[in-house]
Design a protein that fits this description.
By secondary structure, this protein is α+β, with helices and mostly antiparallel strands. It has 16 helices and 21 strands. Strands 1, 8, 9, 10, 11, 12, 13, 16, 17, 18 and 19 form an eleven-stranded mixed sheet that branches. Strand 4 and strand 5 form a beta hairpin. The radius of gyration is 23 Å and the shape is globular.
């Protein structure tokens, strides 16, 4: 799969389509070139961002909590992903596979300490990897999808190595260990796992205010040089224009993912700001609840849903403004994986949607404009939240579906509401935006539709899909992997298993007090030591 992952670097070129749709990336070429500044070098960085999982940083509890650890510059992993979505060393120095990739030996970098001054030994790394897999059983982050529960970790402090032995082969274990859930923390030194994780990142937590944000300070023991800022303030704020207005007012210096197209264009045109867009690896899609007893267990209804929605027009609308590219697969088109070979039987055709419903006996018998199933009006629960334009997609979908007689009830709340209802199965549609390149390849992401996976939240079941997926996750043959990935994508399309909004690209925007920053395709990294104040040497 390493060759495929390298090929996925093509997304860096393909993703630039978003920049052209937004009439230029406005300063994108300056991303790593520090600006000249005569003013005193800033000692504090203020960052505005969306709040996920109440802002908590316990990597064992939820996926978003684990991402918060990495995104806020608190914790780091043995390996991290570069611009080509390739795992490269971070806390580790090297990785050596043996025994058919069932055994991996990792050489750790020397001289690394946690933010409390404790040395990061091989034993500490083992403790962290063992803890996350055990503690993760109580939460929903499911870290064992990156390192299985049965894998045995042994530590050699004298040699500075850990050895991981597993019954199954890992085509690329460094990529699995690069996921934020696998951040290396000082387990014994951490007193508060929710908001006080002790990691190896450039910054550490000073104070946390619920639903407000964090005050971070420089890690005095940071292994990769002195952190660029003495203090970093994390401010939670919603989407729409909140972050743009805060940037203009000077309340924040840098923000992630401003989703109001008018605001984004205005900031691109303003020389005080740099807008940096990274071709992304994200797909926005709605889970469709296919569990028994739910309306969308009816395949004809799902097929009609897909035919009833004009995805291309939505993605070109003034609201979405080119920030998404439409497509039928749950794997972004820019990643390759046979996208151009896929066949979509559900192009926009409202009359065709009505015909499917009529032939399936899903009709409006009482003339109220809403079709019925089993004598009851269809009223689909649509769960969504205000991030990355998800509510805008959900609103548009609702209007298209009502036009063909499918009733929809919107339930818009927080990202935590969305996640809770997804896990509990309390939804018909559940809109969200996911990274498809988890662990550097789409394998783990595609497990969302594998019937034997506990994270199959939609109840999808296909023997053909299961067979292809099981072979795909174990093969070492890159050509065969590509063939199987294509099969899995086509099965999901044919079975109308997901409502795909489109493919999203991430961005950061910063003012002229910031000299340099960097946005990666995998948005695991927001606050890093690459963000430096203007005028810094």
């Amino acid at each position: 799969m390493k060759k495929l992952t390298k090929k996925s670097a093509a997304l860096l070129a393909a993703g630039l389509l978003t920049c052209s749709l937004l009439a230029g990336c406005g300063g994108g070429d300056k991303k790593d070139a520090p600006k000249d500044g005569k003013a005193a070098v800033a000692k504090t960085l203020t960052f505005g961002c969306q709040m996920y999982s109440d802002g908590l940083i316990n990597p064992a509890s939820q996926v978003n909590c684990a991402w918060n650890v990495s995104r806020f510059g608190i914790g780091q992993t043995l390996f991290r992903f570069d611009d080509n979505v390739k795992a490269i060393p971070q806390l580790a120095e090297s990785a050596t596979p043996s025994d058919g990739n069932k055994t991996w030996t990792f050489k750790l970098k020397k001289g690394i300490k946690f933010s409390n001054g404790t040395e990061m030994t091989a034993t500490k790394v083992k403790e962290s990897l063992d803890w996350i897999r055990e503690a993760g059983k109580k939460g929903s982050s499911n870290p064992t999808k990156f390192l299985d529960a049965g894998a045995v970790v042994t530590a050699d402090d004298a040699a500075g190595t850990i050895v991981i032995k597993s019954e199954k082969a890992y085509p690329d274990m460094p990529a699995s260990l690069a996921d934020p859930a696998m951040c290396i923390i000082d387990v014994k030194g951490t007193k508060n796992f929710d908001s006080g994780i002790i990691g190896t990142g450039p910054y550490m937590v000073k104070t946390f205010k619920d639903h407000v944000g964090y005050e971070m300070v420089a890690n005095p023991h940071y292994w990769n040089g002195k952190p660029p800022y003495e203090e970093v303030k994390i401010m939670f704020m919603g989407d729409a224009s909140a972050k743009a207005n805060a940037l203009r007012a000077g309340q924040i210096d840098i923000a992630e993912n401003i989703m109001n197209v008018a605001d984004l264009k205005a900031l691109q045109a303003d020389k005080k700001f740099t807008v940096q867009i990274a071709p992304g690896t994200r797909v926005a899609f709605s889970w469709m609840n296919m569990r028994e007893g739910h309306p969308l267990a009816n395949k004809a209804l799902r097929q009609a849903v897909l035919k009833a929605i004009d995805y291309k027009t939505i993605c070109k609308s003034n609201t979405i403004g080119g920030l998404y590219t439409p497509g039928p697969s749950v794997i972004p088109s820019s990643l390759g994986y046979g996208f151009d070979k896929l066949k979509n039987p559900y192009e926009y055709d409202p009359e065709g949607a009505k015909k499917i419903l009529d032939e399936a006996g899903i009709k409006d018998t009482n003339g109220d404009g809403i079709r019925e199933i089993n004598g009851q009006n269809i009223q689909l629960r649509y769960i969504s939240y205000a991030n990355r334009l998800l509510n805008d997609f959900s609103d548009a979908h609702t209007q298209y579906l009502k036009a063909v007689g499918i009733g929809v009830k919107s339930e818009y709340g927080s990202s935590d509401d969305q996640w809770t209802k997804l896990v509990a199965g309390e939804y018909d549609f559940n809109n969200n935006n996911w990274n498809a390149m988890i662990a550097g390849a789409p394998t783990i992401f595609m497990a969302n539709w594998y019937s034997k996976n506990k994270d199959n939240f939609c109840g999808f079941k296909s023997d053909a899909y299961d067979k292809a997926y099981e072979e795909m996750r174990s093969t070492m043959d890159t050509k065969r992997y590509a063939e199987l990935m294509l099969q899995c994508q086509q099965i999901l399309i044919d079975e109308a298993a997901a409502l795909v909004d489109g493919y999203y690209n991430s961005c950061i925007i910063y003012n002229d007090k910031v000299g340099s920053a960097h946005m990666y395709p995998l948005d695991y990294y927001w606050i890093t030591d690459e963000i430096k104040p203007a005028g810094a040497k």
